[in-house]
Amino acid sequence: MKRLLNINNTLPKKSLGQNFIHDNNFILKLESLIISDEYTHIFEIGPGLGALTDYLAKKKFKKLFLIEKDIKLHRKLQSKFKNNKNIFVQNCDALQYDYQIHSGNCKSLIVGNLPFNISSQLLINWVVNYEWPPFYSKMILMFQKEVAERILASHNQKSYGRISVITQARCKVKKLLNAPSNIFFPKPKVDAIVLEFTPTNNYIDVNITNLQKIVKKSFEQRRKKIKSSLKDYSHLFKKFKIDDNLRAENLSISDYCKLASGI
């Protein structure tokens, strides 16, 4: 990997959260979990040197969009895939990109080794800022281990928090793969985990803005009982049979969605 980066005169940029995967066995495991057909639009976030992209390009798809902010990597990817008219290399910020415009009426997948420094922001963007059901049918994404554990956490667990509630209210989340730190260059200080997100309609009628508001208020004072941190909503506790002596981490996804529906 170091030799390849030297040849391409490319160094991973810390400012962009770049960590390139150099373990081909891991890439093979990851790509085998990405299922597509000739009607699928695939959005790969942060393709980097194209390690995963090489395998995605061999799959069935209608269009493959490569979202790469690094201008040098963007140019290299453009050159590499210039002969494939169904692969579109986009030089832009993944947080600013309008995925829905390019998805059309096709089913879409979002995949990628997310830049570690904006992974949580990207996830919240995809689960909050689009109409529901969303334009994508599945997301397969990599996060730092600590972030992934927070996303997966259930109520009554220490790592349970805002991102757990918001994400699980929108999607069924499943752990797919462990990604040890030694598969990356440069080697990060922590391991990573690949998660699968499948949109659900369990709480489709809940206003996501209200849910964000009540979850933010609750977890900002997570050590306080909700009769204190959520005192403005105390009239809803009795209505939904929620014990006001509980703390933020004790309320389930269902509890938070009930409170949000009552605002």
Q: Give the CA-based shape.
A: elongated
Find the CATH superfamily of the largest domain. Answer: Vaccinia Virus protein VP39
CATH class bucket of the largest domain: Alpha Beta
Number of strands: 9
State the share of residues found in helices, binned by percent: 25-40%
Number of domain units: 2
Q: How are the strands of the biggest sheet laid out side by side? A: 4-3-2-5-6-9-7
CATH fold type of the largest domain: Rossmann fold
Work out the helix count: 12
Q: Unreliable segments (pLDDT under 50, ≥5 consecutive)?
A: 1-8
Provide tags for this entry.
263 residues; alpha/beta; Rossmann fold; Helicase, Ruva Protein, domain 3; 2 domains; 7-stranded mixed beta sheet; two-stranded antiparallel ribbon; 12 helices; 9 strands; 19% strand; elongated; disordered N terminus
Detail the topology: elements first, then pairings.
Elements: H1 2-7, E1 20-21, H2 24-32, E2 41-45, H3 53-56, E3 63-67, H4 71-80, E4 87-90, H5 99-103, E5 108-113, H6 119-128, E6 136-144, H7 145-152, H8 162-170, E7 171-179, E8 184-185, E9 192-199, H9 208-220, H10 226-229, H11 234-239, H12 253-262
Parallel strand pairs: 2-3, 2-5, 3-4, 5-6
Antiparallel strand pairs: 1-8, 6-9, 7-9
Helix pairs in contact: 6-8, 8-12, 9-12
